[in-house]
Structures are given as C-alpha cells and as structure tokens.
Amino acid sequence: MALDFGTTEQSLSAVLVEADGHVVVASTAGDRIAPGRYTSDGKPDSAFGH
After folding, report:
1. Triad 31, 34, 39: Cα angle to 5°
2. 3-class secondary-structure state, position 38
3. CA-CA distance, 36 to 26, in Å (whole number)?
4. Cα dist. 21→6, 9, 17, 30, 32 in Å?
5. How far is Cα 23 from Cα 1, in angstroms, rounded to an integer?
6. Given strand 10-17, what is the order of strands in its sheet?
C-alpha cells in the first residue's frame, strides 16, 4: 500500500515491525510528520491513533 499525503515532498523516515506482525511507519510530508500503522496483512490499522 502506498502512502499519499497530497504532496511531492514526502519521505519514509522509519519502519518498525512489531512482534505481532503489525508495521508502524513514520514519514514526513512537507513540514508534517505522518505516522501510520498497518496490520500484518498490509491493511491500514483503523484502531491506530484512537
């Protein structure tokens, strides 16, 4: 799955694979920090950040 924050100034800064297979990413989009979390099958984790 691609991350798209609506700008050409994006970069992936860090990736962490958790013991349960979830993937946590930290990226930047312009001057914003954009964290994300994905399930072990690559789908966005809808519970992340709640």
Report:
1. 165
2. strand
3. 6
4. 28, 29, 6, 29, 26
5. 12
6. 10-17, 23-29, 32-38
- Determine the residue type at 12: L
> How many angstroms separate the CA atoms of 26 and 14, rounded?
5
Predicted local confidence at residue 18, as pLDDT = 95
The tokens describing 15, both together, are 């990736």
Largest separation between any pair of C-alpha atoms in the chain: 32
Tell me: the pLDDT tens digits for 1-44?
A: 555 666 667 788 899 999 999 999 988 877 888 888 999 998 98
Residue 46 to residues 22, 38, 50, Cα–Cα distance (Å): 12, 8, 8
